[in-house]
Amino acid sequence: MHLSPLVSHYGRQFGILLVLILLSLLLWGLSPHFMTLSNWLNIAQQTALNAIIAAGMTFVIISAGIDLSVGSILALAGVVMAGSLKAGAPVPLALLIGLAAGFACGCVNGLLIARGKLPAFIATLGMMSVARGGALIFTDGRPISGFSPGFRAIANGEFLAVPMPVWVMGVVYLAAHLLLNRTRLGRYTYAIGGNEEAALLSGVHVQRYKTLVYAFSGLMSGLAAIVLTARLNSAQPIAGMSYELDAIAATVIGGTSLTGGEGHIIGTLIGAFIMGVLRNGLNLLGVSSFVQQTVIGAVIIIAVLLDMAIKKRRI
Amino acid sequence: MKRPILEMRHIGKRFPGVVALEDVDFDLLAGEVHVLLGENGAGKSTLVKIISGAHACSSGQIRLDGAEVRIDSPRRAQELGIACIYQELTLVPGLTAAENIFLGREPRHRSSLIDQNRLNGQAQSLLDELNAGIAATDRVRDLRVAQQQMVEVARALSLQARILIMDEPTSALTAQEIAGLFAVLRRLLQSGVAVIYISHRLEELYEIGDRVTILRDGRHIATRPVSATSREELIRLLVDRELAELYPRVRVTPGPEALRVEHLSRNGVLHDISFRVHRGEVVGIAGLLGAGRTELARALFGADPIDSGRIFIHGQPARVPSPRSAIRQGIGLLTEDRKTQGLVLGRSVLENTTLPSLGAFSRLGWIQLGRERTAAAAWADRLHIRTPGLGQQVRYLSGGNQQKVVLSKWLCSHTDILLFDEPTRGIDVGAKVEIYQLMNQLAAAGAAILMISSELAEILSLSDRILVMCRGRLAAEFPADQATQEKILHHALGEN
Hints:
The structure holds two protein chains of two kinds.
Chain A: H1 3-30, H2 37-62, H3 70-86, H4 91-114, H5 120-139, E1 144-145, H6 149-156, E2 158-159, E3 162-163, H7 164-182, H8 184-194, H9 196-201, H10 206-232, E4 234-235, H11 243-253, H12 265-284, H13 289-314
Antiparallel strand pairs in A: 1-4, 2-3
Helix pairs in contact in A: 1-12, 1-13, 2-7, 2-8, 2-10, 2-11, 2-12, 3-4, 3-5, 3-10, 4-5, 4-10, 6-10, 7-8, 8-10, 11-12, 12-13
Chain B: E1 4-15, E2 18-29, E3 33-37, H1 44-51, E4 59-64, E5 67-68, H2 74-79, E6 82-85, H3 97-101, H4 116-129, H5 145-158, E7 163-167, H6 175-190, E8 194-198, H7 202-208, E9 211-216, E10 219-225, H8 231-238, H9 241-246, E11 257-266, E12 270-278, E13 282-287, H10 293-300, E14 308-313, E15 316-318, H11 323-328, E16 331-334, H12 338-342, H13 349-354, E17 362-363, E18 366-367, H14 369-382, H15 399-412, E19 417-421, H16 429-444, E20 448-452, H17 456-462, E21 465-470, E22 473-479, H18 485-492
């Protein structure tokens, strides 16, 4: 009696995990360099950025919303943080400023959507342009480069032989998993996405929690900005272009429904890894980047079709 | 003797767990208006949906002009000349009247582009035939409801419909517009069209109806010529006495006042409503659809704003600006539509049960899963919710069990002023009895219950006092022992 909900709870990710495993086995067969520890650490490091943003996106999509502004917020948070570093702020303060910038942009999104009753698509489309413009104004269109080794260690350093961005990703997913499954924020996110009217009539403070969901997404963009800026040793106002599409793709591949109310954070992590493994594998095989783009798009479609077919059979 | 166009014999319809229609006979003569009468859930709409192809019947036979037919889709019904005009109009507001009338069947040029002139010309002649005073090029969104209805009728005529089904067509019309509609109907009847007419308004039945068929609990009760049937007889046929005696209310001596409402008004919806409910009391609210009962419950729950009036909770003046505030003050609302308002269907029994009370099971936003599960399990157990586990999505539960989950939401949050809006709608008899018993227990434990129901038997058997609403006002109030179905209907219909 207690087992069946457990199985259905984790069973939903099973299909997509199978896709990841099959894909890995295929690439193992095709390239001798694929199934090595160093390559997997490489994949994890390259996946981290998208995965962090997608964690925020998962909350947004579960609440039946969408956030198109994540890439632009990343750019804005990145240049604001870089500017404060250049102005002599100590690293911890600069990091806080970067995170706060992302969080603030997310709050504005949330307030526009929850209080202003704007459709999420419109509000975040607007923010996408506003934040991008803000980043360009702030930097006059030029990148801000050259930071202290201490700051760069955030991306280049290792701990127990694992690159720091992978640790950041791990902590983000642990926290996001707990938030989604163990806190009121998570519970209400599902309820609002599943049936906003019922949530409201059950006394859920819908406006507050919707705002928080977008604020969380903005915060994740801020965190991704730190990782990216440290890795490139440069903050670029044009960074993060089309990142929203990768994050949405990872979330949807991971089994989160765009209609809201269902989805799991671990699915999103697997989704991000499917995209990362694919890019890595195609690189190893020497496939041109034009072809890569086509293949990745096709795989997104096939993965979701497969996942839907598995879910349908279970019902 | 006119010939029957439509004959239905031994029609049965089963839904999982519910028998909606059983062995119903129905026929329709050319040129007549045949009125279908029955309480909510009596099977009227199921019967109409079978005729219009929206449902397939589980058993029985349908003949059209003497030949047996299968109406397996709305499209097939259309081909057979059956057209339906529902309460909620099904027009595209942004298109013109003409475009709506011929939607999907627009006259075309040889180039296959739409022939705008013929489209408007044909539509205009249909509309003129109806004396509707509408230009074919008017946008539907700019028309009044009555005019929109005429567009629907014109569409039915353009399909050469011979059977017109009208479901509560007058509920949103003024007296003048109703007269206009009836004039149109009479002209259609002369050309041989037959009308199946559903309405709760008895006066309309006498004005336009030729025969009336009464359904109750999915069974055919009687078919009579309207002119030879008195109002009293109709009400007696409508009423179900047996159920009223099946589930007696356990009387409790009422305690102190729990909820008092004084001169509550909401512009255009609720007018000057005053009443009180005591602990241990079940107060029933009867009335027709659109009488303002749901609106009253929503206003008390803070889901809709009020324009004037005062609310007292346990004797203290109170403000209820939001559902959140209502719940904090101990008010729970079991909504009329559990699927769109009461439950998050894709989430589990557990999560739905504790949704209003999650704060009590968490500390600093962190949910204490063990305590939460224990509480939810206790309510699921006490309410006999039949589910494979607390993790089961509520969408897979039966209607009765879903309703019990909604109830457990409010019990788990310890609300003791309970507003029940149609608590037994769409659930089977067994679950109904369980919910009745539960209401008895809750009242005995000191809860104050306000119950809206369209089933008179339910209102009569469960209430200590009965309020009757009509057009946004409180039309009457009876102690249970002085109320009869006839009296309630009388006031609900606004007959004085």
